[in-house]
Amino acid sequence: MGTPKKKEYYNFFVISKYFNNNKHKEKAYHILSEKSKIDFDIDDIFKFIDRTSSKIGQQYLYFKLRTIGSIKELKKFDELTTLFQKNKDLSVSCQLELSKLNNTNSYYLEELINDKQ
After folding, report:
1. 18-46: per-residue pLDDT in tens?
2. Is the pTM here over 0.85, yes or no?
3. Alpha carbons 14 and 59: distance in angstroms, whole number
4. CB 17 within 8 A of CB 60
5. What is the DSSP string of 50-83?
6. What is the H or E stretch that residue 100 is in?
7. Intra-chain end-to-end CA distance of the chain, in Å
8. How far is CA 72 from each of CA 22, 27, 61, 78, rounded to the nearest angstrom?
9. Are 90 and 84 in contact (CB under 8 A)?
């Protein structure tokens, strides 16, 4: 389990890019609206729970906070979470690989996937 980040700067304009540009959210069961995001103070919740080791990890976490998938998708995500909790070697190995994408330019990787060609 990761440790809390201290004195981390959060640029929600780029952190939210994956959520804003992702076409998969159109198939989601529910999307947390901008008004609800503000009402629930999602950005502060994000800062509190963020233990990611990469910029794209931050973007995916933000996407997961704002997007509610189907029961099937939630169960699949829970299975993956459990896998990483039980297999520490796999967890650390993946964290090391993802940490290679922990520079500010990595926020723009999602544009290669989601932007118009």
Report:
1. 999 888 778 888 999 999 999 999 999 99
2. no
3. 8
4. no
5. ---SSHHHHHHHHHHHHEE--HHHHHHHHHHHHH
6. none
7. 38
8. 19, 13, 19, 10
9. yes
